[in-house]
Write a structure and sequence with these properties.
With 587 residues, this protein is α+β, with helices and mostly antiparallel strands. It contains 19 helices and six strands. A hairpin with a 2-residue loop joins strand 3 and strand 4 (527-534). Helix 4 (116-123) crosses helix 5 (127-159) and helix 9 (242-304) crosses helix 11 (348-362). The protein is globular and about 80 Å long.
């Protein structure tokens, strides 16, 4: 394998930042609804309702687990299919996922609804908390399949390169939820039942709005069930999502166990402090999920394109990004009384205790989030076993540490959170470095991203200057010849790339001319794949070529060269993804 690398990080950073920003806004909007719900319940019902929210959360996560089992792995499969520009496969995975959620998810909801009293009694023996828990579950379980469907829709739309659209739909859904909470909880006095109604309305609105995207021409998916392959693809979807399913099941179990441990060791005050910490952790999950989803979507496309150089850049960008986001969350927890009063802590001694606990708890957020982001990288690389070991191991270590401290040193109970997170992430870095040494430097010592693809690749960033364009074209010509591509295909690819790159250089938006665009060429088994990416205004060269073919005015005349591109390369496609124009050629 021979690989040339001269690419800068501009376009990868731009795509990642754009995706993370949109995903943060999406998750932040969703978490805003959850936090507002907790605040209005605390003010209108009482602190018991906040404690009940932590008791209910394992059940909500159980529903989320089923949704993620059916959608999260499928999203990774779709990303790789889009990276290969295989829309038929992407549509089959998409359709299978929707069918799975409606069949499996719907059945699970009915099953859980029938066992609501038993579930509520299992979660708590306290009569007040039992009543609150049952009232919520009796409404939520009937419509939880909407949560699964909304999650899947958001993932698929964002992976299709349109995260902003998913954000807009999520924000509108959150507004509906907040208005519903004000009416049902604040005005009608429905209490926790009103809370459940608000969430179901939020998911329903999100599903309807995102449904319009799937009917638009720019959508890469269409409903196309794979026939006899349905059960095979459903099984593959579940296999891909197994790691995140196990992780979320363990999160639900961990929350339940920590509920019991904190209550037994520290009483009602301890359970309340843990409930506040849990709300903070859910806010942290906004940023963590945004970075993880960005890695899964953009990284999955890069894997499909065989672009491990780009994946390496993306992985290294993700680690400082999550640390920065966690620092922004940690700062308010060190401001006196900033968080405690939001959740009904009006007693001075309780406020002091909550503030003290939050400051200790905040120390776990950076190492905890780093472990999960690294696990997402393992998922993209299809290192399924390592992904499961990491996600399972972190929670097991945390619960065991808290149990030991509650039994033998209850005064230091809250220190179990940062202690377990630090120990685990250090062990993770040591394991990565050992793997780096064992492979003789073939992997990144930090993220385990391989440095080679197994084929030959040319990887360049091209400045918006004609000299740079022609210099890279010469490199591409030499690369294709040395890689054994036949002269006819080499000539066609060079001719098409010359026209496309010249068009990008001459017509890209002025706001990016001081940066560069990327060319990535990959050769494997006698076939050449070339991908061009730029951050200019959206411009479809295939459509422009068709306009030229129809001789429509001056614009048609200007793009006669693109008509040639359409005519000499059969396998060419265009998509606007993550704020980038992406043109893919194969010969």
């Amino acid at each position: 394998m021979e690989q040339y690398q001269s690419r800068n990080t501009f376009l990868v950073s731009r795509a990642f930042k754009g995706y993370v920003l949109a995903s943060v806004l999406t998750s932040a909007a969703i978490q805003t609804a959850s936090t507002f719900d907790a605040v209005i319940l605390a003010q209108c019902v009482g602190a018991e309702a906040v404690s009940a929210s932590s008791i209910i959360m394992p059940v909500e996560i159980a529903f989320s687990c089923v949704g993620l089992l059916l959608a999260y792995g499928a999203n990774a499969m779709v990303a790789r299919a889009l990276g290969r520009h295989d829309r038929e496969e992407a549509s089959a995975v998409f359709s299978t996922t929707i069918a799975s959620i409606l069949i499996v998810g719907g059945f699970f909801c009915l099953l859980m609804y029938s066992f609501c009293p038993a579930i509520a009694r299992f979660l708590t023996d306290d009569e007040t908390l039992y009543t609150l828990t049952y009232d919520y579950l009796s409404v939520y379980t009937l419509g939880a399949w909407l949560d699964m469907l909304a999650t899947a829709f958001c993932l698929f739309v964002a992976t299709d390169g349109q995260p902003k659209f998913a954000t807009q739909a999520a924000i509108i859904g959150v507004v509906v939820n907040i208005v519903s909470d004000i009416v049902t909880i604040g005005m009608l006095g429905w209490g926790v039942k009103g809370s459940a109604v608000g969430f179901l309305l939020q998911y329903a609105v999100c599903v309807v709005l995102l449904g319009f995207y799937f009917r638009s021409p720019k959508c890469s998916y269409s409903l196309r069930l794979p026939g006899r392959r349905l059960w095979q693809m459903m099984s593959q979807n579940m296999k891909e999502g197994l790691a995140v399913f196990i992780n979320n099941i363990l999160i639900a179990a961990s929350i339940f166990i920590i509920n019991v441990i904190s209550y037994n060791a520290l009483g009602e005050g301890g359970l309340f402090c843990w409930s506040v910490c849990l709300q903070v952790l859910m806010v942290a999950a906004v940023a963590i999920n945004a970075v993880m989803e960005g890695l899964m979507a953009i990284g999955g496309v890069m894997v499909g394109e065989h672009d491990l150089r780009g994946l390496g850049i993306l992985a290294k960008k993700s680690l400082p990004a999550i640390c920065t986001l966690m620092l922004l969350l940690i700062i308010p927890m060190w401001i006196p009384d900033c968080c405690a009063t939001l959740f009904g802590a009006d007693d001075p001694s309780m406020m002091d205790e909550v503030n003290h606990v939050l400051r200790i708890f905040s120390l776990m957020l950076i190492p905890f989030s780093l472990t999960l982001v690294l696990a997402a990288i393992y998922q993209v690389l299809e290192l399924a076993k390592l992904n499961v070991v990491v996600t399972v191991g972190q929670l097991v270590v945390m619960v065991l540490t808290l149990w030991l401290l509650s039994a033998y040193a209850p005064d230091y109970f809250w220190w179990g959170f940062p202690l377990s997170a630090f120990l685990f992430v250090v062990g993770q870095f040591v394991n990565s470095y050992i793997a780096y040494l064992k492979t003789h430097g073939a992997l990144s010592p930090l993220t385990l991203v391989p440095y080679s693809t197994g084929g030959r690749s040319l990887d360049c960033s091209v400045r918006y200057q004609s000299d740079d364009v022609f210099s890279v074209l010469h490199q591409l010509d030499d690369f294709l010849k040395q890689s054994g591509i036949n002269p006819s295909s080499t000539f066609k690819l060079n001719l098409c790339c010359e026209e496309l790159m010249t068009n990008i250089s001459n017509h890209s938006s002025g706001r990016v001319t001081h940066h560069s665009f990327d060319l990535y060429a990959y050769v494997d088994d006698g076939t050449a794949y070339v991908t061009l990416k730029d951050a200019g205004r959206p411009f479809n060269p295939l459509l422009a070529g068709k306009m030229a073919d129809s001789h429509i005015g001056q614009e048609g005349y200007q793009h006669l060269g693109l008509r040639l591109v359409n005519s000499i390369i059969d396998d060419i496609s265009y998509q606007y993804m993550y704020g980038l124009n992406v043109v893919f050629l194969k010969a």
